Amino acid sequence: MKQFRILLWGLVAISVAGLAWFTLNQTAPGSSGGFSTDFDLVDTKGNPVDGEALRGRPHLIFFGFTHCPEVCPTTLFEVTGWYDELGKDGDLLDAYFISVDPERDTAELLENYVANFDPRIKALSGSVEEIEKATKAYHVFYKKVPLDDGDYTVDHTASVFLMKADGSFKGTISYQENPEIALEKVRNLLKS
């Protein structure tokens, strides 16, 4: 009887794992490998950039905001360093900085902000509703946090998303991950 229960629980575990894999790997209309492309953003020139427009080349996506004191500038400097290390191969890689603070991050402010980093990093923003769609598409957490002086900051996911040319998810690079490991992940993205 004990062996039967072990076998039964093993089958339950396999079934749950199979269902989870199946659910995460479904490609519904308007999505790619579980990532919806149903959002409409704009670049710093006001040009529309929808989720489909991000496809076509391997790319990095990082969500942040221009008033971010540490995580965002550090991460964008790291992305700049990856581009430097990649040399000409870096021309095959797109990078997007998507604002989670559309109320303050105007097109002009975003353009001036990303000008401090590699010119291949493009800043995107949009309405509060469209940013909400984009963050949900990538399963990104963000939350406005009031400060004592009446201003606010934004807590947010601090990972860089590695996306294949077809828009499917390849992996992430954590905030301040080992530089050699991070660069190797980017090189593997370019090979995929």
- End-to-end C-alpha gap: 48 Å
* H/E series: HEEEEEHEHEHEEEEH
CATH topology: Glutaredoxin
CATH class: Alpha Beta
> The biggest beta sheet, please?
7 strands, mixed
At CATH's second level, what is the architecture?
3-Layer(aba) Sandwich
Molecular structure report:
The protein is of the alpha+beta class and 192 residues long. The protein has a single domain, classed as Glutaredoxin (3-Layer(aba) Sandwich), CATH 3.40.30.10. The chain has a seven-stranded mixed beta sheet with strand order 4-3-7-6-5-10-11. Strands 1-2 form a two-stranded antiparallel sheet. Helix 2 links the parallel strand 5 and strand 6. The chain is globular. The N and C termini lie far apart (48 Å). 28% of the residues are buried.
